[in-house]
Design goal:
CATH superfamily: tRNA-splicing ligase RtcB
Order of helices and strands: HEEEEHHHHHEHEHHHEHEEEEEEEHEEHE
Strand content: 15-25%
Helix content: 25-40%
Radius of gyration: 21 Å
CATH architecture: Alpha-Beta Complex
Number of strands: 17
CATH class: Alpha Beta
Number of domains: 1
Length: 460
C-alpha cells in the first residue's frame, strides 16, 4: 500500500479489495497506489495492481480493456487562441459527441484491428513504423499462441463486429480529454532529451478508451456490474449464442459459471476456457492499441492544418490491462486497473526507444493543475512495476478541505466542449494535490519525475 498522511487509502476500499482477492492464488500482495478510489461502474477500486498465478479474473481490471493515454510533442511555439480554436473545431467535427451511426470501418478492418493491433493503424493511416517504438508492447499482443489468426477472427460475433464499425478513434467527454500543455519545468534533462522533451515545448496529451469492441468483449466474457442498456440488450441474445453452442453439458456449465455469474469468477488459465478468455483479452488489447493510434493519426493531421505543427509521439500506454509477466521468477498474470505499467530499463534491454530510460509513464493532474511525465525508478518492482494513472481524487480532496486553493500565479485553462460555444476560461488551482500524489510515488522509489506539464487548453 502506497499512501501518505496527506492522502490515506480508504479503509473501506481496502476491505473491498481484500475480500475481492481473498480466494485467489496470488503471486504477490495486491498493490494499492495513490488515487485509490472507487467508481460505481467497477467491481474493484481504481489504482490497483493484482498478480495471480494460474488464473485471471476480469473483475480486477476494467470491463473495457486498453483505456489509455498518450503524450506527443509539437515542433512549434505555443499557438494563438484562434489556431487552438480551429484545432479543437477540427477534432470535434471528426469525433462528434454523440458520435452518430455512420460506419467508420469495414467488417474486415475491425477483425484486422483486433488481430494486428497498432500495425493495422500504421497500415491504414500511413503512420511511421518508428511510432510503434513509443507504444507499450509495440501496440500488439500475439494471438497465435491461442489459435490461428483465422480461428481468432471467428471468436468475434457478427453483431459485435458490426457495432464496432460505427466508431473508431474518438475521444469523448467525461474523464477523457485532449489537452494542450507547455513543458514548464524539466527535472531530468538527460532523460528528457532522450525522450525528445525540453523546457518551453508544447505538448499534446490525450486520454481515450479502447473503443466499442473492447466493451463488448468485456461484457461477453463476464457479467459486469455496469453496462449500457444497448449493450445489455445485445448480450442478452449474443452471450447464449456464443457460449452455449458447446456440445458438452459440462463445458456449458463451466461457461455459465465463468461468464454469467455475478462477481466475475476466476478462470484457470490452464483450461480451454482460460485460453479462450486470454485470446479474447488479447484481441481487446490489440483493438485498443489500433484505436488510440487511429486517434493519434487524426491529431497529426489536425495539428499540421490548424497549428502548423508536426507531432512526435513520446509514449502511449494503457492503464487497464492484463499481461503475462514474471513475478518472483515465475509466470503470473498482472491485472492493472486504472494504473500504468512502469517497466525499468532492466526489463527493456534492447528496446529501440526505452532501453536507457525504462518505459515513460504519465501521472496527470487535472486540466486545472499541472501533470507529470515520469520514468520508472529502481524500486518499481515493489508495486509490481506499476504507477497510478492519475491524481484526480487527491486533487479533489485537497480542494474540498481547503488544503489547496487558487493558483498563486493566476494561470487559466481554456476549456472547450463538444459544441460551437466559446471556451470557458477556467482558473487553475495550485499544485499541492498533484504534488502530494507524486511525492508518494517518488518517496517510495517507484518513479522519477522528468518534466512538469502545464495545461493551457483542453477539450473535455
Amino acid at each position: 500500500m502506497f499512501d501518505s498522511a496527506d492522502a490515506r487509502a480508504d479503509p473501506a476500499l481496502l476491505n473491498r479489495l481484500r475480500d475481492g482477492t481473498a480466494s485467489l492464488d496470488l503471486a504477490a500482495p495486491p498493490v494499492v497506489l495513490p488515487d485509490f478510489c472507487h467508481k460505481d461502474k467497477s467491481e474493484m477500486p481504481s489504482s490497483i495492481a493484482v498478480a495471480t498465478r494460474d488464473a485471471i479474473r476480469p473483475a480486477l481490471t476494467d470491463s473495457a480493456l486498453n483505456c489509455g493515454m498518450a503524450l506527443a510533442t509539437l515542433d512549434t511555439p505555443r499557438p494563438g487562441a484562434s489556431a487552438v480554436t480551429d484545432f479543437y473545431r477540427r477534432v470535434r467535427e471528426r469525433y462528434p459527441n454523440p458520435p452518430g451511426w455512420k460506419f467508420k470501418l469495414s467488417r474486415d478492418e475491425v477483425l484486422r484491428a483486433a488481430v494486428l493491433g497498432a500495425d493495422f493503424a500504421v497500415e491504414r493511416y500511413g503512420l511511421e513504423r518508428h511510432d510503434l517504438d513509443r507504444v507499450e508492447e509495440f501496440g500488439r499482443q500475439s494471438v497465435e499462441e491461442f489459435g490461428s489468426e483465422r480461428w481468432a477472427r471467428r471468436q468475434l460475433p457478427w453483431i459485435c463486429v458490426q457495432l464496432a464499425r460505427l466508431r473508431f478513434g474518438s475521444i469523448g467527454p467525461s474523464t477523457h480529454f485532449l489537452e494542450l500543455q507547455e513543458v514548464e519545468e524539466v527535472f531530468e534533462p538527460e532523460i528528457a532529451a532522450r525522450l525528445g522533451v525540453f523546457q518551453g515545448q508544447v505538448t499534446l496529451q490525450f486520454h481515450n478508451g479502447g473503443g466499442v469492441l473492447t466493451s463488448q468483449i468485456g461484457e461477453l466474457y463476464a457479467r459486469r456490474k455496469s453496462a449500457s442498456r444497448l449493450l445489455r440488450a445485445e448480450m442478452a441474445v449474443q452471450k447464449p449464442l456464443s457460449h452455449f453452442a458447446a456440445r458438452s453439458p459440462a463445458r456449458a456449465r463451466q461457461r455459465y459459471q465463468a461468464y454469467f455469474t455475478a462477481g466475475c469468477p476466476s478462470v484457470p488459465i490452464d483450461s480451454d476456457e482460460g485460453r479462450r478468455m486470454m485470446l479474447a483479452q488479447r484481441m481487446s488489447m490489440n483493438y485498443g492499441f489500433a484505436y488510440r493510434m487511429a486517434t493519434y493519426a487524426s491529431l497529426c493531421g489536425y495539428a499540421s492544418q490548424a497549428l502548423g505543427a508536426r507531432l512526435r509521439l513520446v509514449v502511449d500506454s494503457p492503464h487497464n490491462s492484463v499481461y503475462q509477466e514474471t513475478v518472483d521468477g515465475r509466470p503470473a498474470y498482472v491485472h492493472r486497473h486504472n494504473a500504468a505499467r512502469a517497466w525499468t530499463p532492466e526489463l527493456m534491454k534492447g528496446h529501440p526507444a526505452f532501453a536507457q530510460t525504462g518505459q515513460p509513464l504519465l501521472v496527470p493532474g487535472t486540466n486545472r493543475t499541472s501533470s507529470f511525465l515520469c520514468v520508472p525508478a529502481p524500486q518499481a518492482h515493489r508495486s509490481l512495476y506499476t504507477a497510478c494513472h492519475g491524481t484526480g481524487s487527491i486533487i479533489s480532496a485537497f480542494a474540498r478541505d481547503g488544503r489547496s486553493g487558487p493558483d498563486p500565479y493566476r494561470r487559466r485553462t481554456q476549456r472547450y466542449g463538444y459544441t460551437d460555444a466559446a471556451p470557458q476560461d477556467i482558473p487553475q488551482l495550485d499544485d499541492r494535490g498533484v504534488d502530494a500524489a507524486l511525492a508518494i510515488l517518488v518517496g517510495n522509489g517507484l518513479v522519477r519525475p522528468v518534466a512538469r506539464l502545464r495545461p493551457f487548453a483542453v477539450l473535455t
